[in-house]
Amino acid sequence: MEKFIVELIGVFTKKDLPEDYQQFLDFRVNIENKELTDKEKIAVLRIKNTTSYHILFLNDYASMDEIDKEIEESLDGKIYNFNTRKILEGHLNA
Hints:
By secondary structure, the chain is α+β, with helices and mostly antiparallel strands. It is about 35% helix and about 25% strand. Strand 2 (about 40-45) and strand 3 form a beta hairpin.
């Protein structure tokens, strides 16, 4: 069975996050009972051809392998786009 394609909307901090994605951030923060810092890197992902979004707190990941595992397990998805992978890797290694 084919995986859902996951696209990167962007990487933001709490203060830079567009208002359209705030509800998704609030939901994820509540689920994880997390307190965000102003410098926390937040990746907003969209499942292609849906209105579903997924939030990743990039400071919680050490590698793309960990992100891939999260996306596969929680979304039954995969990041196929090379540029998206490189952008996320760049933020992980910064």
